[in-house]
Write a structure and sequence with these properties.
Layout (H helix, E strand, L loop, with lengths): L4 E11 L3 E10 L5 E10 L3 E8 L4 E8 L1 H5 L5 E4 L1 E4 L5 H13 L4 E9 L10 E7 L20 E6 H9 L6 H14 L1
Parallel strand pairs: 4-9
Antiparallel strand pairs: 1-2, 2-3, 4-5, 4-7, 5-6, 5-10, 8-9
Helix pairs in contact: 3-4
Length: about 190
């Protein structure tokens, strides 16, 4: 793969919604020493996420939904997040807009790309493309709430932008993509 890294092999551990593999690799350190490593890697595809912002009212539209991993970690399972979902073969901007429409009922306008991130590069292949889009009364197409056949039961939460920022500080917003997008918007305004 590179002069430093040689993939020796990969063993499929689980294939379900995504795939969990054990990858064996040789890693050449700067000293020249080669170390054989094994890493488990989970792949379920890449994703896109969008923060919806109403610049006239200075509000953001977030979603609250059940997430099993926080519950298993002893935390509250209903996270406040930006709209997000897997690419499903679409370009990131199209997937982000589709997810915003499915989850909030709003068809965003003025969509702009912020950055791409790996939220957990030590074990996940997922790259998330982050966007900000505008919403207002004119972008509303339906009630939102997600897709029932995908197991989604999504609550819409509209907040003043300053309130959303405060929720990062006090721990009510803990989702990485949401924090990045809210802080990006705050930096743009500074």
């Amino acid at each position: 793969m590179t002069d430093r890294i040689s993939i020796i092999g990969a063993k499929l551990l689980v294939k379900n919604w995504g795939t969990l593999s054990n990858v064996t690799l040789d890693y050449r350190h700067k000293s020249g020493t080669v170390q054989r490593l094994e890493r488990e890697v989970y792949d379920h595809g890449s994703a896109a996420a969008m923060l919806l912002h109403d610049p006239e009212r200075d509000t953001v539209l977030l979603v609250r939904q059940f997430r099993l991993p926080p519950l298993l970690n002893g935390d509250a399972p209903d996270l406040l997040e930006v709209c997000a979902g897997l690419l499903d073969g679409e370009a990131p901007a199209i997937a982000a807009a589709r997810e915003a429409l499915e989850e909030t009922g709003h068809e965003p306008k003025g969509v702009r790309h912020v950055c791409d991130i790996y939220a957990c590069p030590g074990s996940l292949t997922e790259k998330v493309s982050l966007f900000i889009g505008a919403y207002d009364q004119g972008t509303l197409r339906h009630a939102g709430g997600g897709l029932e056949h995908e197991g989604e039961e999504i609550e819409l939460v509209e907040l003043d932008f300053s309130q959303a920022l405060a929720m990062i500080r006090d721990g009510r917003i803990v989702d990485a993509k949401t924090i990045i997008l809210l802080q990006h918007l705050a930096l743009q305004r500074a």
